[in-house]
Amino acid sequence: MAAPMSNVDEIRDRVILGEFGVKNVHTTDYPGNYPGYDDTWDMEKFKRNFKIDIVHADENTLEFDMIGIDAAIANAFRRILLAEVPTMAIEKVFIYNNTSIIQDEILSHRLGLVPIKADPRLFEYINSEDQEGTEIDTIQLQLKVKCTRNPRAPKDSSDPKELYLNHMVYSGDIKWLPIGNQADVFADAKIGPVHEDILLAQLRPGQELDIVMHCVKGIGKDHAKFSPVATASYRLLPEITLLQTIEGEQAERLKRCFSPGVIEIQNVNGKKVAKVVNSRLDTCSREVLRHDDLKNLVKLGRVRDHFIFSVESTGILPPDVLVTEAINVLISKCQKFLTELDAAEMD
């Protein structure tokens, strides 16, 4: 069992999950609020307490802990990941021929939401007055597919996969058409859809699509298609404290109240005793509070300044690059704010 915290420390540092509500949800450690506590801003203190721990990383997902920071900054970081890290996405769709059953506007919307594998850092934002686009701000793609009958299909077949050719139009059918010197500049880059198996339309013999698309640089604040993440979220680190030893049948029930891996049963002097082994895995369902004989034996909380971030990329950029770009955006926002403050003081 963990050592008990003082009441003031608990109010300052923990969010408490109760049976009928959540306590200590607001930040209160601002200067002068607690006698005997020095809460003035100190850069050296912040550097000592702040850290980032990478928990899991792969091609498209990243989980890391951000410790020693206020919820406002953590939430700003999350919102920047969602809405202010730029990507390339289809903005203009020129439909020269569409004889499928999908209306032009519906097909255009579907095309716009296809993630495009292109590094936005290598492109500029397009000029609003520029209607054509250039090699520095536009990527041109083409979708040209025509459905025909399969002359080698079995006569007794009713399967469209055997009867028709090109009857399923996938994102993999979208091809890159280099503009200007893009073929040389991006010779090593495989510009095109991130995923080649996104179904766009179904055709029948005689139907065809002839479409040219222009991709431009944008941010999720303007349209969700520019958002570089499938999800970006955080949660506070759960903290489970056993107020007394729980044994036998109660220990078994306590284990079932939490997510797998949170509580384990250990053999202590021939008795089954419940131990908290990994509170991080808990979903904070508060199931234990439904049991009258258990709810007063456990304290449920969350560490106020320990944020567990989960970032899932759409595949346009690796998640670690997205996090770095989000940090750069936050830095530029801070610099802009300081510049505005200096300008206001001069006035």
TrEMBL record:
Coiled-coil segments on the chain, per record: none
CDD domains hit by this protein? RNAP_I_II_AC40 (cd07032)
- The DNA-directed RNA polymerase RpoA/D/Rpb3-type domain sits at 61-340
Q: Which SUPFAM superfamilies match?
A: Insert subdomain of RNA polymerase alpha subunit, RBP11-like subunits of RNA polymerase
Which SMART domains does this chain map to? RPOLD
For this UniProt record, the keywords arranged alphabetically read as follows: DNA-directed RNA polymerase, Nucleus, Transcription
Name-wise, this protein is DNA-directed RNA polymerases I and III subunit RPAC1
Superkingdom as given in the UniProt entry: Eukaryota
The entry sums up its family as follows: Belongs to the archaeal Rpo3/eukaryotic RPB3 RNA polymerase subunit family.
Q: Where in the cell is it found?
A: Nucleus
Species this protein is from: Cirrhinus molitorella (mud carp)
Q: Which Gene3D superfamilies match?
A: DNA-directed RNA polymerase, insert domain (2.170.120.12), RNA polymerase, RBP11-like subunit (3.30.1360.10)
Signal peptide, first to last residue? none
Q: What's the main place this protein lives?
A: nucleus
